[in-house]
Amino acid sequence: MEMGGMDVGGGIAGKLWNKFRSESVFVNYTPFFVCLAAGNLSADSFHHYISQHVHLLNAFAHAYELAEECADDDEDKKAIRNLRKYVQAKLKSHDSLVREWGFELPEERSLTNATVKYTDFLSATASGRIEGERVPGKLATPFEKTKVAAYTLGAIAPCMRLFAFINKEIQALLDPNDSTHIYKKWIDHYCSENFEAYAFRIEELLDTLSISLTGEELDVIEKLYHQSMRLEVDFFSSQPIIQEAVVPLSRTLDPAVGGELSIFCDFDLTCTAFDSSAILAEIAIITRPKADPDGSETQLARMSSADLRSTWDALSAQYTEEFEQCVESITTTETAETFSYEGLCEALEQFAHFEKAANSRVVQSGVLKGLNQEDIKRAGQRLILQDGCKGFIQKIMKNENLTAAIHVLSYCWCGDLIRSALSSGDVKALNVHSNELSCEDSTTTGEIIKKLESPMEKLQAFNNILNNRDKDGQHLTVYIGGSVGDLLCLLEADIGIVMGSSPTLRRLGEQFGISFVPLFSGLVAKQREVVEVGSSNWKRLSGTFYTVSSWDEIHAFILGSPS
């Protein structure tokens, strides 16, 4: 198993990091770390962080002291003592380290609310005061004491692993020969083998102390680990930034001048884990037409389940084969040296013909006849979505302090499936733009009401929406997609974000000169531009997409911390 760039064992520390690692993006994408990575975090903001960090170091040292008292085994006591000595040495050398990094010592500052919550959490955990856990007021038995020592290490471990991981992420973006980055020495310090070894020793000791714990007690450690991660997010999210920052995006829009955010996204394999066409076909296959009381068939007779399965399998196989042929016919041409919008549009015409022909075959096959609308809606409610997708969409829609609209643009055959998958009763209506299944008496006829079947039609719908909004004020558009059909909308939006790693999308994009940049490194570059050029205009150069692997990244970029 690899954690933050080094191999570790498969104990509880590794399992918990793997489970909650995705939440590291909410620290990575804070204004503090984006500005720091760009090298233009203000000295005052850094001084404030340093002053708060000293309080955390003291809290860690105190927690280690209490954990050492609780440990029963002499070797464990020694290991915890060494961890405490490491922190104490850092506190003693803190002033000289800050000067070595090239900064003046900050003035002593009072604790912020986030710092107080974090230090109180560490103190309470190390003292055995754990919410929902029955620990005797006086730790009488060695087992009770060892358990609290394990809990304490579980509360400390994520902070060190997170710190090592994030700084390595930042270090990877820096030129090792660039001596002008004012925070490079600080970043290198937390990427050092010495700090990595310190983080690993904590995790190793946590594994050791947890060996004899019950399942319920391991659940407590998991809860503490996750709570510590959340407190770390809050700690860095609360660091004051006095300069203009590109994150979170929602805060760059000024409501006073009519700032409005329009978010567009695809549905299949962007919001969902599976293609919706297969879901609709499966509904048709597993639901049987019910007999009327008089014994007659339902209004729309359907093929047998076996026939439906066979027909759908043949349609799917033909779609896949022709899609690959379409890609091959386009990518055998010479790769463009520069971005070629005209060449891309010409190529996408082939995909338009292909998609329309495929939809016509589905209609002719009759596989979509006789579906009940309620069955479709229930399937939508149970649809497996990408982690974090629905939460992000609903948080945008509930946010009263943000003028924003979300539009789903999809080739999906049924808008009701999308609405039932993404909406809930306590949010305003979702804007869905897709094809629809024709119905009579709440039952599908097998026909598709075709609205979006090509990249060009998606782009037309995108532009129609923008043309109908208020022309005054500050507007930003974000498009999130992951398929070939999204290419033109990704290019047209102010910010184009590619979800996942579709090899076809990347292959086709690169064929016509489109570049793909990881979102975090793109934001760091944008932050440098803000300071150097003095503008945060998001109208980027044509032919550049930002890539993400999760909706948490999008959430962190647009909204910031989830709390």
From TrEMBL:
CDD domains named in the record: TenA_C_AtTH2-like (cd19368)
Record GO cellular component, one term: cytosol
Residues forming the Thiaminase-2/PQQC domain are: 31-127, 151-238
- InterPro entries attached to this UniProt entry: HAD-like_sf, HAD_sf, Haem_Oase-like_multi-hlx, Thiaminase-2/PQQC, Thiamine_Salvage_TenA
A Pfam short name: TENA_THI-4
Query: Which GO annotations describe the biological process of this protein?
Result: thiamine metabolic process
Protein known as: Thiaminase-2/PQQC domain-containing protein
Organism this protein belongs to: Gossypium tomentosum (Hawaiian cotton)
The root-end lineage is: Eukaryota, Viridiplantae, Streptophyta, Embryophyta, Tracheophyta
